[in-house]
Amino acid sequence: MRIPVSRWLPALAALTIVTFAWGCSSNTTETASLDSSPLHVSFSTTPPSTVKVGDQVTITVTVSQNGKPVEDAKDVTFEVWKEKQDQHEMIKANKNGDGVYSIPYTFRQEGTYFIMYHVTARDQHSMQKMELKVSKR
């Protein structure tokens, strides 16, 4: 038994339209949107400037986004090295709360040092270098 084209063609067209419409429908599940606003990182040392050999210095970054502390940084590391030296120390920071991350560091020799922070948070990476002079006691 043969079915005439005039009977199955409209059914095929309707099925095609329904299938196409179903495939194009949007799935409206809610997803958390990531904030793409830039991170703001404030970098400091305590004491702020005059450092002598043997002094323990606190190296600190305060990380925020849109004025709010970033408590969920994936990684905060400080890179410390003396001028003209190839060897750099990479030191993982302690989380202190309110977006503050820090390390204690003691400078053993006089000279010019560089400190670079590396902050990875919310799919962003921020880094900046600071120069610090360490003088004799």
N- to C-terminal distance: 106 Å
CATH homologous superfamily identity: Macroglobulin (MG2) domain
Number of strands: 10
What structural class do helix, strand and pairing data support? mainly beta
Provide mean pLDDT, rounded: 86
CATH fold descriptor: Immunoglobulin-like
Largest pleated sheet? 5 strands, antiparallel
- In total, the number of domains comes to 1
CATH architecture: Sandwich
Figure out the total of helices. 1
Uncertain ranges: 28-33
Task: Tell me what portion of residues adopts beta-strand conformation.
Answer: over 45%
CATH class: Mainly Beta
Tertiary shape: rod-shaped
The helix content is 10-25%
Keywords: Signal
Domain YtkA-like: 38-118
Protein name: YtkA-like domain-containing protein
Organism: Collibacillus ludicampi
Can you tell me about this structure?
By secondary structure, the chain is mainly β. It has 1 helix and 10 strands. The chain has one helix at 5-24; strands at 40-46, 51-52, 56-65, 68-69, 75-82, 89-92, 94-97, 100-106, 111-121, 124-135. Strands 1, 3, 4, 7 and 8 form a 5-stranded antiparallel β-sheet that branches. A 5-stranded mixed β-sheet has the order 2-10-9-5-6, with no helix packed on it. The longest helix has 20 residues, at 5-24. The termini are far apart. Residues 38-118 form the YtkA-like domain. This is YtkA-like domain-containing protein. Keywords: Signal.
